Amino acid sequence: MAVKRLRVLLFETPENPWFNMAFEEALARVVSAGAVRDPCLRIWRNKEAIVIGYMRNIEDEVNIELASKWGIPIVRRFTGGGAVYHDLGNLNYTIVVKPEKKIEKPINYIYSKLLNGILLALRKLGLKPYVENVNDIVVNDRKVSGTAATLFWNITFLHGSLLINADLEKLKALLKIPPKWKYVEKVSPVKYKVANLSSFLKENISMKEIIENIISGYEELFGAEAYLDKPSNLEMELANLLLKERYMKRSWNIMKYSIWEYKNLENKVQPLLESYRFSK
Fold first, then answer.
1. What Å distances lie between residue 32 and 35, 130, 199, 242, CA to CA?
2. Is residue 280 one of the residues assigned to a domain?
3. Which has the closest alpha carbon to 252: 46, 78, 28?
4. Distance between CA atoms of residues 41 and 96, nearest Å
5. Which of 160, 232, 153, 175 is nearest to 58 (CA)?
6. Torsion angle, CA of 214/216/221/225, rounded to 10 degrees?
7. Of 211, 192, 208, 161, nearest to 48 (Cα)?
8. Which pLDDT value is given to residue 1?
9. Residue 165 pLDDT greater than 50, yes or no
């Protein structure tokens, strides 16, 4: 019987948050095309950036004037959800799986199963995490991780940001609570009460140790053996195309054009993915 495998990418471009976002979409597309069969776990960081969901209004969630003054870029991701602040004290994780068969209630699958890899990792660190508001990970009544997901392209895709020792003062100064969320009864206040993991750990733990525990958590979740990999030529070529045609454009990052409004981009993406299929 073949051993299940978990592909791990420790690939990041901290100085270039636009490419980090483009690579997220490229990874999703490549898994969807069947170019990668194993579940993929990517762990990565941005040096400093504000990242916002693809259908959110920046004015509602970001102090744009302050971000401009401090030279902090605003980048839009292809998944939904609110704005988050990234710096090198954050550890971002992405898990991408192409289901072998149809999953009933796939969003429930994402948040009830795929998120468990992070919960397992935090338990290995001696913490008692739990999920609140469907997609927030909480420790000691403080949010330490927010997540976003998508089912685009017939995959299950989850990514999130784990606060390790991030600059929370900057986070609070740069991000706003969207007006509508103040009146949504089903959303608990913990969504906007954040803390760093470092404040709950009894001893200083390195990023390396946290990464190792995240990998171990997902190995346990999938019953798989992890292996380190590098981005493929297809992933890099596709990420560079997406960077140029979507993620570097003001129309995407600031003006909130829908992901489906880039029809000309699709005409360039599909031949790349088809070239993989024909090269098999």
1. 8, 30, 38, 16
2. no
3. 78
4. 7
5. 175
6. 130
7. 161
8. 43
9. yes
Q: Which of 39, 47, 50 lies closest to 12 in space, CA to CA?
A: 47
Tell me, yes or no, whether 275 lies in a domain.
Answer: no
User: What is the Cα–Cα distance from 97 to 116, expressed in whole angstroms?
Assistant: 14
The range of the structural domain enclosing residue 191 comes to 5-267
Contact predicate 219/38, CB 8 Å: no
Task: Tell me, yes or no, if the pTM score tops 0.90.
Answer: yes
Fill in the amino acid letter for 249: K
Asked, for residue 273, whether it belongs to a domain, the answer is no
Q: What is the pLDDT of residues 224-259, one digit of tens each?
A: 999 999 999 999 999 999 999 999 999 899 886 666
- How many CB atoms sit inside 10 A of residue 50's CB? 25
Q: Is residue 72 part of a domain?
A: yes
The CATH number of whichever domain residue 105 belongs to comes to 3.30.930.10
For residues 26 and 77, is the Cβ–Cβ distance under 8 A? no
- Number of domains, the chain: 1
Give the residue from 216, 222, 197, 169 showing the smallest Cα distance to 43: 216
Separation of alpha carbons 68 and 245, rounded Å: 23
Rounded to whole angstroms, how far apart are CA atoms 97 and 84? 24
pLDDT digits (tens, 9 = 90+) for 99-139: 888 888 888 889 989 999 999 999 999 999 999 999 999 99
Q: Coil, strand or helix: which one is 208? A: helix
Each residue of 14-32: pLDDT tens digit?
Answer: 999 999 999 999 999 999 9
| Beta strands 90-97 and 40-44, pairing class | antiparallel
